[in-house]
Amino acid sequence: MPDPSRIRANVVGDSTEVKVLMNHEMETGQRKDAQGKVIPAWFIQDVTATWNGKTVLSAQWGPAVAKNPFLSFKFKGGAKGDKVIITWVDNRGEKRTDEATIA
Amino acid sequence: MNLQRRKALRTGGGVTLLTLVAAAGWLRAEDARAADWNKAAFETNSMDATVKALGGSAPSQSKDIAFFQTPDIAENGAVVPIGVTSNIPKTESIAILVEKNPNMLAAVFDVPAGTDPSLSTRIKMGQSSNVYALVKADGKYYVASKEIKVTLGGCGG
């Protein structure tokens, strides 16, 4: 099971600001190990953020997103106590869903 | 790269029933995902080809796209913060492209109504290069660029 993402969601004015730090190797498939063998690509492909069952952001990523990806965005609405759910799926089919309470 | 992995799985040798079952599940998950993830767009190495793979045509330059929290000089190419704000009405998606990376496209964000067309993330850069923010708004594509110098590359090694 992959490590959990760290999520912070705060109300700012009439919006909610979400900051996510995911735990992932994000291997590009370009690097070689000490034996000269290519390290296979391993990266997050899809990210979805939902709030109250509504998708507030979705993303498709390539291997050029940095290791342990960071993401920050803002959406209108959201009240203290609401939940923001972040799901990612990587190219190996591994999946991780984490949620945070808006503060 | 996926083909290689399939081959590795197939020629894995000493396959027990358990790994077979696991592999089958794996592959199924991959097929289901393939429809979602725009593989073609992530394998291009020119702006035009990328936009085409995303389903658009030649983007026009725009001054309404701004970079924020983005350095002029990145010390470490493995972690380059990029922030993009689009002031174009009806922004639907924001993509980040790096001209001199092995594949240009780094990320595509779909911005539904109600979400600010402004977000930030961190990417990898192999070398100093132009970084493009490609914005789809009301069905049209717009682009802005910024040059970022990298002191230490984030690819290879």
Describe this entry's structure for a reader.
The complex is a heterodimer of chains A (103) and B (157). With 103 residues, chain A is an all-beta fold. Chain A has a single domain, classed as Immunoglobulin-like. Chain A has no helices and seven strands. In chain A, the strands form two sheets. Chain A has a four-stranded antiparallel β-sheet, with no helix packed on it. In chain A, strands 1-2-5 form a three-stranded antiparallel β-sheet, with no helix packed on it. In chain A, strand 6 and strand 7 form a beta hairpin. Chain A starts with 5 loop residues before the first strand and ends with a strand. The model of chain A has no long low-confidence stretch (mean pLDDT 94). By secondary structure, chain B is of the alpha+beta class. Chain B has two domains: 2-34; 46-152, Immunoglobulin-like, CATH 2.60.40. In chain B, 22% of the residues lie in helices and 39% in strands. Chain B has helices spanning 2-10, 17-34, 47-53, and strands spanning 60-61, 65-68, 73-76, 80-86, 91-98, 105-110, 115-123, 129-137, 140-152. In chain B, the strands form two sheets. In chain B, strands 1, 3, 5, 6, 8 and 9 form a six-stranded mixed β-sheet that branches. In chain B, strands 2-4-7 form a three-stranded antiparallel β-sheet, with no helix packed on it. Chain B is globular. The relative contact order of chain B is 0.19. The model of chain B is unreliable at 12-34 (pLDDT under 50). The A-B interface holds A 15, 26, 28-32, 40-41, 45-46, 54-67, 69-77, 89, 91-93 and B 1-2, 4-5, 26, 29-30, 33, 36-38, 41-42, 78-81, 98, 101-103, 105-112, 114-116, 118-125, 154-157. Strand 5 of chain A pairs antiparallel with strand 7 (115-123) of chain B.
